[in-house]
Amino acid sequence: MIEFLLLLIFAVFFGLLLHGIHRKVIARIQKRPGPPFWQEILHTLKFSFKQTWIPRTASQVMYVAIVLIAIGIWTAALYVFCIGGSLLLIFAFYMLHKIVEHGTGLSSGSPYTKFGAIRSVMSAAAELPLLVTVSVVYLFTGTLSISGIAGWEAANVPLIGIALPAAVSLYLIILSKAHYGPFSVIEAKELVSGYWTEHFGGWRALLNIALSLKTFVLISVFIVVFIGVLPWWLFLIVMILVMVSVSFICATTPMLTPYNTVLIQTIWTGVVCLYGVIVWVVMIS
Amino acid sequence: MMESILVTIPFGDMIHYLSGYTGVLFGFAAVFVLLAVISLPEKPVEIVFGTDGYSLKETPVDLAKFQRFMAIACGIATIGAIVTGDIFNFTLFAAFIGVLNIGIVAAVKNKHVLSAAFSYGLVVMMGTVPLFAGAAIIAATTGTLSIWELAAAGGVPVIAKLLLLIGVLGEGMAPFYIGKAEITRASGAPYILMIHVSSLLLFLRVVEILLTV
Q1: Is A146 part of any domain?
Q2: ipTM
Q3: Which tens digit of pLDDT belongs to each residue from B62-94?
Q4: What span, in angstroms and rounded, lies between the C-alpha atoms of A188 and A171?
Q5: Which domain holds residue A85?
Q6: Domain range annotation of chain B
Q7: Is the CB of residue B35 less than 8 Å away from at least one CB of chain A?
Q8: Residue of A29, A219, A267, B209 with fewest CB within 10 Å of its CB?
Q9: What's the domain count of chain A?
Q10: Helices (H), chain B
Q11: Rounded to the nearest 10 degrees, how much is the dihedral formed by the CA atoms of B74, B79, B82, B86?
């Protein structure tokens, strides 16, 4: 338990550091100096000690509970990842994060957050390829346990080499959840900060912690499922490289309109479903 | 492929169960039922079109009571869909969730919201056809609707699985926010949120069923 708590603290700080690297890389590509790498850690610490209250228009219990739920689901996701649990559970936690986004937006009473919340439901188009990813991984490895998948890769080949479309789907999920990305319509600037505009002070700090855990878990799962188990130092380097690649896309791609976001995600869903059917037919024949 | 089982409650050949996966879904649904019980509705701020003015909308007590009842019933139906070990019961709970979701939306006395509720209602009604057709095909081809027995015996036709998935997508109406976002004119938390909670949990449960049978 103590080991897990230490890992949890490390994951929070490393996740925040990844968010800081993300901002720095975007800034440098756009020829701006950008904030220091550790800015998101400073942000979170600063928010933690700022004055906090609940808006009068909010559904007060929900407004607070949804923040705790966000931390709860990503802490549980980290635990499942650590014990090499089920990939299906990670998929479930990711889907439950949709409800967190939706609930955060709907609970405050603000029209900006509400539209962010509705856009989060629209971007559910990104989740269907993830289901195909899970199915394809199962078809190849015969297991949905993360430790089992890692064992299969150690005995055979990394899945990224033979199931590239599935890896791209999970990568798109990471991209769609990154700040300032082409699919980040739920926190577009025309909605101020989107679904979490009205969560400030301590609530914002807690949401930052939840999102840093989410980034840490999603990138970790991507590496273990599609590349395999690596030494810890190499694992951290690959995590940073994945984040930098996401930052590069975010820096060079404008934010899409909600319509185009859903359109692109739906087209990719069609492509990856076709791929899933082909893999299934080949595997059973 | 069946997840590791934590609890079983046998009723004849129907074995209701909780695995690690469905246990998480169960816990999540239970938390949101509790939140629906203890939370008061939000007071949405509306911008007055063409001006800098805004208005604060209060939810009438009778409307809040009705929506709360519907949201709690919807949450309980979601829990039923999560723990059941029988595909027919699952389809019944899914149809129940669809009807209750319509109830949450249709309670709002606003023509735009009612228009959205009408459209959602059409989709939900159409969704029941593939939903029950899927269950019927499974019963006809395998002779049982027990998920437990189907997991051991297999042999569920792919077409039945697809129909079940399409039916659930119809009953869980959250995806149709895309086409009819007028729902945003109603107060959101915690009652409208239950629509999304039940839709997503229903989808996650059907994924587990389809991978199991």
Answers
A1: yes
A2: 0.85
A3: 888 888 999 999 999 999 999 988 899 999 999
A4: 21
A5: 2-48+58-284
A6: 5-212
A7: yes
A8: A267
A9: 1
A10: 20-38, 61-83, 87-106, 111-142, 147-153, 158-171, 191-212
A11: -90
